[in-house]
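Researcher: I'm comparing several assemblies side by side, and this is the next one on my list. It has 234 residues spread over two chains. Same procedure as the others: predict the full complex and return the structure.
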Amino acid sequence: VEMLDSGGGLVQPGGSLRLSCAASGFTFSSYVMSWVRQAPGKGLEWVSAMSGSGAGTYYYADSVKGRFTISRDNSKSTLFLQMNNLRAEDTAVYYCAKAPALISVANKPFDYWGQGVLVTVAS
Amino acid sequence: QSVLTQPPSVSGAPGQRVTISCTGSTSNIGAGYDVHWYQQFPGTAPKLLIYGNSNRPSGVPDRFSGSKSGTSASLAITGLQAEDEADYYCHSYDSRLSGSVFGGGTKLTVL
């Protein structure tokens, strides 16, 4: 299993950024995928999750609801996170993470993680 | 402020046993949701250490163990080694928030 996060960088407050996570080594469409972030020197914060193929269920943390959109392209085994109206407090390393389940992260661990990508929101 | 509460730091000498607590509430751990634990070294992604309260993924030494009771869970590390020095995070699900929640993390120092 391998997951490669990309798309991070420096963006001004109010700006947008799209993160990608290219996965391999497992049947991507069969699993819930999530984004988890970690602000500099801080702990882990779950951001969003999307169910596997066919289920079409989305979950968001209150801190990003209405600003971030999770999506996936199962044909390319890739997870995305579209981040709009970015704020300074969104500055963090963003990790994609896989859960061993099809529909929900409830009761499931994150068994594989990407290497993370840094997003910096500053003027 | 994290939904799950962990001590900021713990320490122990090589060979000793340490425990890290994770306290939640009736909408997460106390509601019966499983607790998972991760180990993270500086500059790297977290690694799953314990899942489903007390299960070890393949390759994790049996020096690491987990337990859960009521609204709390614990990670125990026996036979402490210098290479165990890292940050440890607990993780569960919260029905009120409808999402995953983490503890604030605990830094383990091996003296």
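Model: For your comparison table: The first strand of chain B starts at residue 9 and ends at 12.
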